[in-house]
Structure to design on (727 residues):
């Protein structure tokens, strides 16, 4: 057991030795911090996106029913609602119409969402997402920030028109604009009345895109979903929990894929670090043999090298991790967002909120610092076994 | 499910540990075949140098193994957000038959490498390296445990199935939506608590006497009781104490206490009981070192220190783990 005073002396010596070789040390630290920055940015962006998605999904309906035909989704007849009346525990079934509207002038796809906010539980809470204005009445629509900016062209237009499939014009007035905080979901959204959406897409009167089911007791969601699936065999029944897990899975998969790509950068860095640590200059050989002459043991030199490695890793980790935090929170992870979020024309201007958690930090530490420390053991040992008499040669 | 950062980090970490130990084992084999302390040949000097490398490698490997243990539990918590039916780390560890064995192997690996480092410290305390061959045989025995850890972990990750909405009928495939329940069934609370606190008191008293006079038979007994107490306390944490921490009578999870939601109190709980048991057991294991090797003084000093550390950590552990329980039972909750 080495005493604390002895360890402190070795740490002191290792810091001064790093400072003496500051350009060599700085080179390693800059590259290392860069690698940590890349990996940490990815991890933080993934975590922030998943958190944002699950915060928003907390208000999604517990169960969504979609009609499937030949493996594709198609409109669902409203009469399916009656078939479900036998299932106890369902609080409400709300039909929903949604689809994409292609704006030829800008090349952007808008998401059109039509539902009756007054007929569904928590529907009135939709109003909280609206920045200015109110829930849409007949021939009105609430616009996402991106849609508003494009349709109004920077002005303050209130009336605007969209094309029906037969190219006739349908006119709306603007009832309000969604809040910027909900941008991840609403940036490209037009929210309107059920009848207006049906008119815009020319859907038959007894059809909707899907049915949203609200369940009174959250413990019954899975059972009710199974009953629905049994009653309506031509439908796909999706629970909120599944959507959440899918989001998590997809973001996790993408970030894992990116991590694999970044592992090549890590491998390159490890080779660089190994090389730097192995290439002993004549001065370094001399230094170690002089240390041996004045009484240092092989184990002391190994401890010295350990503390040097820990210092380099700590500094690089703090710098890389801080830069990643700044990159994600102030620059909205602009380097990687397209990879994780998709590449639609209308990019939501997201405010990502990175969270620093013990688990995430340990994860980045294991992916970066552990390989570095492991790669420097053998070079450190090679240096430590230099015999005392080699300075005399 | 290898394609996410957690699986990658776990696999990387385990591979690094395995490679480090494999290099150390290479030295071990060379030493066992041709170690000759009387010789001053180049080969012998090279071997002596290599023994330094092998011990450094094992020390790093132990550090990484402990990190891998913590990361594995945290990863299990992350996986519970992705796989079907899992509510927390218990659910994802129970998602296939390799989860719990991997955790146990990781714990075993960390304990064994710790014992090896103590053996190494005894060995280098004498200039004659009296335990050299024994410690390298022990090192070779460590390799299969770590290899089993890597294999088991790889099988666990490979058999994890993320819950992705399928293109046809999502619910039918998303079976097992119910909570996967708890790791252990009902245990008689009163009896378990009596054993838990009784053994703790016994260990504290034994620690007090052993520190003054480390007697061989008592040390062995103490080590055995520590082994028993480690098992008892893990069961007690899972079935009794955890639900007081969560303030939920039906949530018996030994892993969620690590989460920041509960002030990461689990880190303190496991950070005391595991090292305490480690030192308690290693004080007993140190008794196998024969007196004739001439390092009895070093061994005794270590045993006294180990008994002191394990007793101090035991007191801290009992205080921390009982905090929520006492608060609820005797002071009417938070």
């Amino acid at each position: 057991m080495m005493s604390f005073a002895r360890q402190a002396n070795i740490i002191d010596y290792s810091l001064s030795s790093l400072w003496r070789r500051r350009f060599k040390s700085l080179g390693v630290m800059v590259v290392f911090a860069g690698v940590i920055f890349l990996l940490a940015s990815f991890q933080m962006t993934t975590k922030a996106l998943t958190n944002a998605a699950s915060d928003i999904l907390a208000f999604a309906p517990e169960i969504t029913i979609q009609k499937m035909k030949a493996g594709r989704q198609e409109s669902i007849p409203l009469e399916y609602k009656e078939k479900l009346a036998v299932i106890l525990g369902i609080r409400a079934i709300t039909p929903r119409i949604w689809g994409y509207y292609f704006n030829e002038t800008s090349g952007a796809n808008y998401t059109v969402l039509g539902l009756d906010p007054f007929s569904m539980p928590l529907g009135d809470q939709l109003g909280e997402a609206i920045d200015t204005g109110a829930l849409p009445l007949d021939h009105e629509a609430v616009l996402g920030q991106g849609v508003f900016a494009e349709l109004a062209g920077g002005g303050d237009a209130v009336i605007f028109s969209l094309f029906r499939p037969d190219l006739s014009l349908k006119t709306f007035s603007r009832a309000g604009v969604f809040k910027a905080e909900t941008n991840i979901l609403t940036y490209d959204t037009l929210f309107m009345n059920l009848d207006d959406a049906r008119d815009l897409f020319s859907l038959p009167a007894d059809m909707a895109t899907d049915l949203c089911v609200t369940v009174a007791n959250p413990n019954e969601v899975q059972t009710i979903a199974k009953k629905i699936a049994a009653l309506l065999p031509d439908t796909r029944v999706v629970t909120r929990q599944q959507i959440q897990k899918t989001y998590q899975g997809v973001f996790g998969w993408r970030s894992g894929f990116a991590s694999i790509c970044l592992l090549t950068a890590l491998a390159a860095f490890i080779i660089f670090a190994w090389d730097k640590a192995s290439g002993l200059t004549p001065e370094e050989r001399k230094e170690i043999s002089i240390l041996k002459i004045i009484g240092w043991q092989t184990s002391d030199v190994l401890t010295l090298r350990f503390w040097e490695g820990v210092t380099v890793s700590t500094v690089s980790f703090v710098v890389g991790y801080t830069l990643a935090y700044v990159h994600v929170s102030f620059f909205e992870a602009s380097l990687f967002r397209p990879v994780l979020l998709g590449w639609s024309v209308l990019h939501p201007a997201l405010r990502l909120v990175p969270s620093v958690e013990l688990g995430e930090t340990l994860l980045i530490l294991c992916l970066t610092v552990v390989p570095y420390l492991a790669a420097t053991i053998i070079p450190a040992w090679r240096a430590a076994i230099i015999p005392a008499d080699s300075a005399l040669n | 499910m290898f394609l996410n950062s957690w699986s990658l980090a776990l696999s990387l970490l385990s591979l690094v540990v395995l490679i480090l130990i494999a290099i150390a084992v290479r030295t071990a084999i060379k030493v066992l075949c041709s170690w000759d302390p009387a010789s001053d040949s180049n080969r012998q000097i090279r071997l002596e140098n290599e023994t330094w490398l092998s011990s450094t490698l094992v020390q790093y490997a132990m550090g990484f193994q402990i990190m891998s243990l913590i990361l594995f539990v945290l990863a299990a918590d992350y996986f519970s957000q992705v796989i079907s039916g899992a509510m927390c780390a218990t659910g994802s560890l129970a998602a296939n038959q390799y989860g719990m064995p991997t955790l146990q192997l990781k714990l075993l690996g960390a304990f064994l490498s710790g014992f090896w480092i103590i053996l190494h410290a005894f060995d280098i305390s004498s200039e004659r390296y009296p335990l050299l061959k024994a410690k390298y045989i022990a090192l070779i025995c460590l390799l299969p445990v770590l290899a089993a850890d890597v294999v088991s972990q790889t099988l666990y990750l490979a058999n994890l199935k993320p819950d992705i909405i399928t293109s046809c009928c999502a619910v039918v495939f998303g079976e097992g939506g119910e909570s996967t329940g708890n790791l252990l069934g009902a245990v008689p609370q009163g009896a378990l608590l009596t054993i838990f606190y009784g053994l703790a008191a016994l260990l504290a008293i034994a620690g007090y006497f052993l520190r003054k006079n480390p007697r061989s038979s008592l040390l062995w007994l103490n080590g055995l009781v520590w082994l028993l107490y480690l098992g008892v306390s893990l069961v007690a944490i899972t079935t009794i104490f955890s639900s007081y921490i969560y303030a939920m009578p039906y949530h018996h999870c030994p892993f969620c206490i690590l989460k920041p939601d509960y002030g990461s109190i689990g880190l303190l709980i496991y950070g005391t009981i595991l090292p305490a048991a480690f030192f308690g057991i290693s004080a007993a294991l140190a008794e196998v070192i024969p007196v004739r090797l001439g390092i009895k003084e070093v061994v005794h000093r270590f045993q006294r220190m180990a008994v002191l550390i394990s007793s101090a950590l035991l007191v801290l552990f009992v205080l921390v783990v009982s905090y929520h329980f006492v608060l609820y039972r005797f002071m009417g909750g938070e």
In short: The mean pLDDT of chain B is 85. Chain B touches chain A through 50 residues (CB under 8 Å). The radius of gyration of chain B is 23 Å.
